[in-house]
Amino acid sequence: MEAGALAGYRVLDLTTELGWMCGKVLADLGADVIKIEPPGGDPGRLRGPFYGDNADPDTNSLHWLAYNTGKRGVTLDLSLPRGQELLREMVREADFVVESFAPGAMEALGLGYAALQAINPQLIMASITPFGQQGPYSTFHTTDLVSMAMGGFMELTGEGHGRPVRITVPQAALHAGVEAAVGMMLAHAWRERTGEGQHVDVSAHECVVWTLMLAPGFLPCLGTMPERNGPSYNWVGYPRRLNFPCADGHVSIFLVGDIWGGPSMQALVNRMKADDMAPPFMAEKDWLNWNIADLFGAEGAAESQAIDEAVMAFTRTKTKQELYDMALHDEILLAPVSNVADLCTNEQLRDRGYFVPVAHPELHASFDYPGAFGKFSRTPCRPPVRAPRHGEHTRQVLQDVLKLGDEAIETLIADGVASCRAREETPMEIVNAPRRQHRPVQRAGADGELPLSGIRVIDLTWIGVGPITTKYLADHGAEVIRIESWAHPDGLRYGPPHMDGEIGENRSYFFAACNTSKYSITLNLTRPEARELVKQLIATADVVTESYTPNIMSRWGLDYDSLRQLKPDLIMMSTCMQGQTGPHALYPGFGNLMAGLLGFYELTGWPDGEAMAVYGAYTDFVAPRFAALSLLAALDERRRSGQGQYIDLAQSEASLHFLSPALLDYTANGRVMQRQGNRDPHMAPHGAYPCQGASRWCAIAVTSDVEWQLLCQETGHPAWGRDARFTTLADRLKHADELDALLAEWTRTQRAEDVMTRLQSVGIPAGVVQNIQDLRGDPQLAHREFWVPLDHSEIGRLALEGHQFRLSSMRHQPRFARPEVGEHNAQVLGGILGLSAEEIARLEADEVIY
User: Fold this and answer.
1) Which member of 475, 620, 636, 648 is catalytic?
2) What is the distance between the alpha carbons of residues 818 and 146, in angstroms, rounded to a whole number?
């Protein structure tokens, strides 16, 4: 095996916690990431949980440790002219810069993108901000709570007709961080074609909107909006339970029939019958033909309620493990609602060597970290290396990168420009990896040219993660050819919402949103002749993606070892629930089950209530970011080495990185993190507060004592600021219930929009808990042209979600609408493979093309 796919690239990381994840994933892929901190350290070092509950910011923040592994640490005062000069010198030799300052802050220091590009014309710089660089909300102050509220997540997660809630472990910054890495790699692909650098403008707000799955489609398709429903989900017009109580906790079960889950329902009912717990109507039902249409309307609602009640009675008699064992044996769409202790002892993760021990000499300890987000056959991800201590590698970087001598470095330290530790510990492979050489190419992009123009992808994925992954490639110029079949249709084509409520393979909003800019052909892969045609296509391709249950591709002779005989430099990615190997590899499921299995539900809700279901299939909007990044990195590595490789991307292993602080709290402290509603140990008040109107809420997060006093003034209650119960953060946390009640009494008299505007005007993070109608009319999204109208066959013009970043030198939104089933049979099979019209007609008659 060789060095990571991005070995040889240098990244300057100037981010706060809003952008840490970007540098982390690039370091995981082998890049030399230099984390530049201000004097006193990154403020995020003060966020817990802490090792041993000792709040030492240098060594003990598990939040910092989780998202800064593999980086070198430098302390530099960028407020000083000499510090700015040193950064400019580092930029000369850098490939990427990532920062998360407020819009305009870098320009004020003379370090904006235009100034840095003048130094290094090929520089790629990503700016991660809450709302993007420009627009009416671009100067808004936010926290994770406010981002999750304004992005629509909280409107769809929480108590039915009650309080909205976020996931206890902050999520918005993680989405934005990985998304920034994807945007940077696309900009890099353009740089390798033209020699042109770019500015990547990432909006955390847009990243959160993308997690809403099918919810944005209900308004344009049906004129309705989904609602939050506690442990249930609502995408058929009424709540359907997802989380079911059992003897020792909860399990998630996706009760659906037809092509989505008919065999699963039959297997579950068989288990219920064996215990004499299946009602007659369930025992007699044809689950293979119980389709989505049967769920709608009053009759469907009544039947669904009866099913939920019968299943709940059954699950209460079993433990989580008993039910999960049934699911694994019988391929039932069921998963335990895991806590972090369950995850750290998970048989599948242990079998695949997911958790990796990391030594902390300064703590005299070693504890397990989440490992690689994907398994690369040739260029493996770098194992986690302890995050740097404050200034740990300042001297090393100044010597190796800027070629400064000891005397010059001591002067910088004496002048307060830099600071360093006496001892530095960095793996030598980070320091000594051969540096990328800048390409001399300098040309303008051709009309219609995009970063991935000329790349061909054969796409054998279906439902969510795979199609969203290949959408990134398709929208940015790759020729993505979907292989579909009427013999086994993609269930997503029938997923709600459907335009005007009419179900059809070309009427699903969800499918349309995930499959822009792609081509579709129909080949029945159960037929040998169809598989031969697929092999001929793959021989012309650069990338193959597939999301079948493990072993199916090898059974068809379409596994990587077979396909690379046809195309030695082929890149192939397999993405399934829990990876290609291990005792649970054959587990079937969807992202709504993965979110339960991986601990997201257990960490959502209130301490005194049951675990909440996160709306939709949450991990289906985490894993694609990692998958797209992996493919882009592998394509770049192939450009340099001429070699392909295989990527086993387990959706579980990628998604678990979004819970890393909770996992470290268990492996380091032995503590099982509990859900906390909207509370935060570092901010108070901190929650969603009811406002005027039906189901209108505003999120408010007070991050300092100064903001607390401002809040008291703005609400017209200065006496709160003098109340001894609320003087300090510790006081406000101790009396949080009383504080929330007082604040809610005021917000109930106000419009949510007015609360947001008023508090934002004085610098207090606040944001409306936006519903789909709010998002469709959101002025910030409108300014950034987030909603992209496309003309579709059958359903007409429909505005879909665009991308969550902007590239400075090109428009890169979806190019054209989703394909109809087999729409491009003649174009692909005739144009690429050279089949005649007669041959195509014969193969259609024989149901090879089908």
Assistant:
1) 620
2) 33
